[in-house]
Amino acid sequence: MSSEEKTITAIDGTDALAAVLIRPGTSEAGVAIEAWAKGIDKAAAAAVLRHVADMWHSRAGLLGVFDQIAAERLAQDAEWGEQNHPDGTGGDASLLGLKFAAYRDLVRSACKEAEARGEVTWALIDLEEDFEVLAETDLTRLRAELVQSAAVKVAWIQAIDRRLQQTASPSLTAAGEDDR
Hints:
The chain is mainly α and 180 residues long. It has helices spanning 42-56, 61-80, 100-117, 122-135, 139-167, 170-174; strands at residues 18-24, 31-37, 94-95, 98-99. β3 and β4 (98-99) form a beta hairpin. The longest helix has 29 residues, at 139-167. The model is unreliable at 171-180 (pLDDT under 50).
């Protein structure tokens, strides 16, 4: 279509829960965006729009993982609302009668032994981080341990993504690119 051709499209949006209009902006490279939602909260609409955007052009690597985590957090809040529970960590906290600190020490030892044998796994590293979280009593250190645990989970997701990328068929990856 030449730049002088104009197309008019009529859309009946009465049943739409959300809409985004993208129009040419005032500058050559700019766009003007209008968005609205009804019958759905803004967080849920944003999650849907992120999903659509990812279908057209996914953000690879770390940013893509964070986008997915953010979308999941928005979905959790949409379903359950803001959650404020006790931490349930450290002190006398236990699982099957054994205090979390004992599990932490056991898994930490198993992880070191597996590393020495060259047999460490993501699951073992993740368990070690999770039990470090569960054994912690100090709020500041608990937060730091949660960040470390989350970082390990993100690294694990990235490792899975690399394996999936290596096994993806080039013909399947390229198929449908023009349809997005």
